[in-house]
Structure formats: C-alpha cells, structure tokens
Amino acid sequence: MAKLNINGQVHEVDVEGDTPLLWVIREQIGLTGTKYGCGIAQCGACTVHVDGVATRSCTLPVEAVTEEQKIVTIEGLSPDGRHPLQQAWVALDVPQCGYCQSGMLMAAAALLAENPKPTEADIRAGITNICRCGTYNRVLAGIQRAAGETGARG
Amino acid sequence: MAQQIEASRRGFLATASAALGAFTLGFRIPGAAAQGATVPEINAWVVVKPDDSIVIRIARSEMGQGTLTGLAQLVAEELNADWSKVTTEYPTPAQNLARKRVWGNMSTGGSRGIRESHDYVRKGGAAARMMLVQAAAESWGVPAGECRAANSTVTHAASGRTASYGSLAAAAARVTPPTEVTLKDPREWTIAGKPVPRLDTVDKTNGKQVYGADLKLPNMLNAAIRDCPVFGGKLRSVDEAVVANRRGVRKVLRVGDSAVAVVADTWWQAKSALDALPIEWDEGPNAEVSSASIAEWLKAGLDAPEAAVGNRAGDAKAAIGVAAKTVEAVYAYPFQNHACMEPMNATALWTADRCEVWTPTQNGEAALAAASEAAGLPPSKCEVYKIHLGGGFGRRGAVHDWVRQVVEIARQMPGTPVKLLWSREEDMLHGRFHPVTQCKLVGGLDAQGNLTGLTMRISGQSIVAGIFPQNIRDGRDPVVFQGLNPGGEEAAIGYGIPNILIDHAMRNPHVPPGFWRGVNLNQNTIYLECFIDELAHAAGRDPLEFRRALMTRHPKHLAVLNAVAERAGWGTPAAPKDGMPVHRGLAQTMGFGSYVAACAEVSVSDAGELKIHRIVAATDPGHAVNPQQIAAQVEGSFVYGLSAALHGECTVAKGRIEQENFDSYPVLRLDEMPAVETILLPSGGFWGGVGEPTIAVAAPAVLNAIFAATGKRVRTLPLRHTDLRRA
Fold first, then answer.
1. Structural domains in chain A?
2. Rounded distance, CA B207 to CA B521, Å?
3. Which of A49, B374, B485, B621 could be stapled to B404 by a disulfide with Cβ–Cβ 3.0 to 4.6 Å?
4. Among residues of chain B, what percentage have pLDDT more than 90?
5. Measured distance CA(B298)–CA(B288) in Å, rounded
6. Of the candidates B201, B134, B131, which has an alpha carbon nearest to the alpha carbon of residue B173?
7. In B, residues 193-232, which contact A (CB 8 Å cutoff)?
8. Cis peptide before B513 (omega within 30 of 0)
C-alpha cells in the first residue's frame, strides 16, 4: 500500500512496488492526461512534477516516491487551465494531435519555474520531449510568450 | 446530447460523456447522431439546435492535421453560420453504410481530407442554408429570394423580420432539399480561407482530450500483446503457467496464429506478465533475411532487364550515349517506422450478435471491415467509434492489424470489453514500414551543359503490392512514380527533359510496407532533386538557373521554386551564423495535388556537425482553407522529413526489425529544429493537400545545402552514416 500526494490530494494505492508512477497515475488514480509514449524515459510524454521537478514517470517505481513528495500532473498544472503556458498554447494553437502536449507543458512549466526568462538556447536545451507531429517551433514560441517575451526567434 | 438512449446504455453514456464532454467524437450512442434524436438534422452535414448551437458532421479523422477545423470552416462558410456557435461530431462508419455512404469516403490519408471532399461538404452547408431560408420565407409568407442569411440569422429586410437558425431548424428539416446548389466564389469567403483557431486545442492543453489509449469502459480489462518478431513467423508455444498466478492476470490467449496476449485487470499487469511469459516462436522462412541481403537484392534490380515504365519520352539511353558528359549516381532510402506518439490501440466488446470497437483510426470504414471479419459478424452487426488519433501518419489507415487483434481477443471473452494497447516495442517491431528502395540515375549533358537525357531506375518495394495487390496492373505499381509522372494533375514531374526513362524493378522484401506520411514522393524527390543538383554542378551551372531552364513549361512548379529562392535571397551570400558560413540548397516537387519548394540554409563545422538554421518553404495548394494550420502542417512536415533524413532507419537482422524504441530510433527534437518560414501561394482553380507534400523537399534541400557547404554528396540515408568532416 502506497500513499501518494497527487495534485494536492492524498491517494492510497494498492499496487506492486515496482509499478511505474505513470501507470499508477493512469490506472489506479484514473488521471489519463499523463501519457505513455515509450516506457524508457526517452520521449517525455509521461512528464509530471515531483516536488516541482520535471520527472519522467514511466520509469519511476512507485515505491521510490514518498507520501511527502508532491506530485503534480497536467490536470493539476492550474485550477482552471489558465496557466500562462496553457494560455500561450491556446493563443498559438500549439498542439496538433496533442498526445505529447501534456508532457510538453509539464516540462515547459518546470523549465519556467526554474528559469523564468530562458533564452532560446535554454529552451532548446531544456525541452527534450518528442513530438512527431512537429510542433517544436510553436512550443518554442509558446514558452517565449508565456515567459513574457514577444515570441520572436533570436 | 442525444436524448433517445437505449436504457442499457445509460450507464455507459454517463461515463463517456463525463469523460469526454458533449459531442465528443464517436462517443455518441450508435445511431443517435444519424437519426438526430430530438433535434432533427437539416441534412447529413448540419444539425442546428434550438439554442442556435450548430453541429457539423465530420467524416474524416482528426489526427493533428487540422482537418476537423478546416472541414467545419467549409461547411460553416456556405451555411453562413455564426462560427462561434460551431461544434463538430463524427458520424460512425456503420451509420455511413446504413445511409448509403451519405458522408462519402471516411478515409483520411494522402492529404485528401479536404481536397477530396470540399465540394460535397460545401454543398451540404449551402443546401442547409437554403433550407433555413426557405423555412423562414414560408413562415413569413414572403419569397425566399427576398430573404438573406448571415451569421446564423435569416432576415427579410422589407418587413424587418429576423429569425435565428435555431428557431428555424425544425421547420428547415422538413423543407425539400434543393436540387441546385451554387457555391460561393472562394474570394467571397469570410470563415473559410481565414486563420481561425482550431476547434480542438483547449482539451489538448489540460489533459481532458481522451485518446484511445485513455478509454475506460465499465468492467473493462486490459491486454498486452506480442506478435512473432519475425514477419511471417508463428507462435509455437507459451508456458502460461509461469504467469497464471500473477496478480491481476485473467487470461493468456493465442491471437491468430502468430501472437499471444495477456489479459489483466490493468495494462501494467498485463504487460509485466507478458514480459515474464516464456514464448517459443516458429520463425518461419524469413529468419535469415538481413538489411544486407535486402540491399544486395535491390542492387541487382538497378540493372535488371525487367522493369515497369512510369515515364518515357524520346530515347533517353540514346541521348545519354551521345552526350558530351554523363553523370551517374546511386541513391538508397531505408525502412522507416511511423512512430506515432500514441501506440496502436483499440477497445472491443464482442457478443454473439454484436461487436463494437473504439479506436483511433484514419479510416473508420476500413476499421469496421476489419472488425467485422475478425468478429465473424456482418458489418451491420458491428460498429466502430472513432477517437481522435495520437498521430496517424498513414499507420492507422490502410491496415487495421490491431483492430483484428483486439476483436480476436474480445471474441474469446464474450461480453467483457477489452482494451489492447501495444507497447512501444511492439509498435516499432510491427510497423507498416516506409518502403525500402534504391535508385540509379544517369544523366547526359550536351556541350553547353543542357540536360538532354535522363534515366532513373527505381529498384525496391511497392506499397501497393503489399496492401492493395489487386491494384497492381501488369506488374506495375502506379504509386511508385509519385512526383515523377509525365503530366496531369497529380504528382507530375516539374521538368521538361527531351529524352527520359523512369522505370521500376519491383522487389518486395518480407518486411510489410505501409503508406508513411509523404509516401513515395519522399524518396523520389530526394533522388531526383539531389541528382538535378549533381547535374547542375557537372554542367557548371547555378542549381536554380539549371532548374529554371528545364521548367519553362511548368509554371506552377516554377512559381514556388522562385518564391523560396527570392525569400531566401538565393544569389546573394547568406550571412554567417555563429561565426560559421551558411550555405543554401534547393528542392521542388509536386504531389498530393500541391506544388511545393524549399530552400534550406545550413552550416557544417570542421568537425562535421550539421546545423540547419532556416527553411523557407512555399506551397501552392490551389485553395487555402486555414493558412495558420497550413503553416503548422508545413512546419511539422519538416520535422517528419528531417527526422527521417538525419536519423531514421529501421534495419533488419534475422528477419526482424532491430530498432525497438526511441533510443535506437532517434527522431528530431527541439534542439535540432530549424526555423521554418512558410510561403503560401494559393493560385486557385484546383485543390491540393498540405499534410504531406513539403516533407519531400525537406531532405533534398538540406542535402543540397550540405553539398554546397562540404562538397560531399550524401546518397545513402540516414545522414548520420555519412562523415561530414572536411576531407
């Protein structure tokens, strides 16, 4: 039995300790905004925040997470879907298929929390999630817009 | 929402509607959308509710390409609708069949979503508008010709009367549909042709968009599957006792003759048990095939006497025989996996007299046919509910192998819904791969450096032979010649070459081919456009001028090429970037109904590191329905094309694909993404697609720029096999 603090709520879950946090979030908690893409921490579709740090949940065993650690998923990124990044994403129509975008937004939110005024190079180095539709340039512009910049490329 | 619901379905509807929101996409109750429930449809395309909200039915699938929004714009334009009131829904494939395909083709591939259906969807919108106007005129006792419709309101100016579409909808549904419908001149458009925001963005930013992989039905179980990794092999045996007592495991099942599935309470339990399951395969006749053996076989095809002709004029071999100078080169393009971010998945519920499937599919009707066959039930007793796709790119269109699998699983568990989700590894090993080909080109130049003859022999795989063999005629696959056809409105070569011979020696390895975004236009454009660059160099001519001289009778091809050359500043030196010289490369082609060109700007360091700074891309799609979404497609197409050009390759060893995940199948990420400037040049008079064509110019523009930078020709892809360090 594990206790997890997810989006401010404590959940008790009865799973094998080696179950990845991703699958606990999706199958036990029932929050499906966090996606499975690769299972080996390559693509970032499963990105959540653990104590504010962008974390690829598909390779993190649930037994390695304590009740004190605060897990935030895309559903908890903002109470009303109006995080500056979410607003920027809507304003720029960033998503295409959208499957990677939960992870993309969570990675971007952690980046901005740590570095509120990132350079373009910071963003390019910091966002390593995979998008196959090819939204990268709008992801870049969305992060710049949320950071209060013009969105113009340097 | 639909009001007339079968009692037994209420529980499910509540679950689905809570999870998905109203009108979501295939999740309405079977028959409800088509029958209109308490709100009668005006016609198959348009439902207007009493609160003035408008439901536009979309037959094609949304997989990120924006078709949902674009098609809704076209209908709303002719409807004279208030765009802020527009929502969408998918009619189901079985409804389409039951209504004699009133929604036409549901297939969503080949960049056909809009270009193939614009006429009848606009007519649907226009007819609905005329019926709303007629209903108003009849209620007011005035001639319909005196009434005008705008912004979801009908007005009779002379009497000052107005009525909203919502108030007229019930009466309009009883009006006899018009037999003659006149469409607007696109120059009059106010909704279509405009860069309106997508209709599906918000739910994709907050986790609410439900994909097939996220679906939950009451009492649903989860399945993980492993198919024989060697194509053509079979399942010999499994030792299910090893996993039978694992927590959550319900069943270990054979699926067809080549796969095994574990069904469990959760997917993670199913997947973990499958990983622990001892499986023996009968690897069959292909277990010794390798990339090297395939390459050897294709190489022999480059000079084989037998070949199907795709484009012939004059006598190319004779012209080359008397040429002042000849140039010869061999190119090769590897297998690629679509690698959709959402792995293949579907959910099925089978009983002896009905089979229902929920799945992300590019072709609902093909999914229905696959479900029907696997279920042992006629299509009338089956249904497919389409869900937005987490990527498609051609993988989820022509072949529905995962749908067959889930139905075969569900058939062994009657009455229990089962969701099958492939692991990434399963998805990589069991793709429908971009075909493998090689190409030998020979060109002849006269003393003035004019191209007088060209032969182009393609050797390798035919997608059509693998998927629609009935479409092969006299051994010829017409799709193999995309971008190389002698003329016409589709995939025509952009050069006038007096003596030309393009042919194909078909060689089909056992690795199953598929339609991969851009299809054969991708490698054909690399072959032709890189070789044209080689010829220009051999002729001592500027690559742009060399092309222009061959394009005098191809004004649309030329216009997009000129546009990128002008925007990029071709002919003037590029400003250095980060202290490195910048070099340019060009490419142009025509396919999926559109004319496209690109100019790439790159640097290559002394250490051989490539940096792609900027791509300028031009598209003439005839008509442009949503310019900002076309730009998104163009940007995305470079990610797809450059991922393949720089990194993408599926190799074969012991009959199976070697790359199982993104660690060994790298794709382009943000750090490598160039700036993309999209030029849109809709010249009118035709309708072209935009989801695919610019993929084809991505690689050759970059490869030609690399030659300009390094003097090195990259003829075998992906690029990572070539050392770009200065010699």
1. 2-76 (3.10.20.30), 84-146 (1.10.150.120)
2. 36
3. B374
4. 94
5. 17
6. B131
7. 197-198, 200-211, 213-214, 216, 222
8. no
How far is Cα B452 from Cα B454, in angstroms, rounded to an integer? 7
Q: What is the CATH number of domain B7-204?
A: 3.30.365.10
pLDDT tens digits, B188-208: 999 999 999 999 999 999 999
Nearest by Cα to B587 from B600, B576, B575, B574:
B600
Complex prediction ipTM: 0.96
The torsion region of residue A53 among left (phi > 0), alpha (psi -120 to 50) and beta comes to beta
Torsion sign across C-alpha atoms A15, A17, A19, A25: positive
With CB atoms and an 8 Å threshold, state whether A139 touches B670. Answer: yes
Cβ atoms < 10 Å from Cβ of B613: 18
Could you tell me the pLDDT band of residue B727, with boundaries at 50, 70 and 90? low
Interatomic CA distance for residues B278 and B241, integer angstroms: 10
Instruction: Provide the residue ranges of all domains of chain B, joining segments of one domain with +.
Output: 7-204, 212-284+344-421, 291-336+433-721
Q: Is B629 exposed, middle or buried (0-12, 13-18, 19+ CB in 10 A)?
A: buried
Question: Taking the alpha carbons of B633, B634, B639, B644 in that order, is the dihedral positive or negative?
Answer: positive
Of all residues in chain B, the one with the smallest CA distance to A134 is: B636
Alpha helices in B265-397 (DSSP H): 267-276, 291-301, 316-321, 364-375
DSSP B655: T
Domain B291-336+433-721 has CATH 3.30.365.10: yes
Measured distance CA(B600)–CA(B706) in Å, rounded: 9
Same fold: B7-204 with B212-284+344-421:
yes
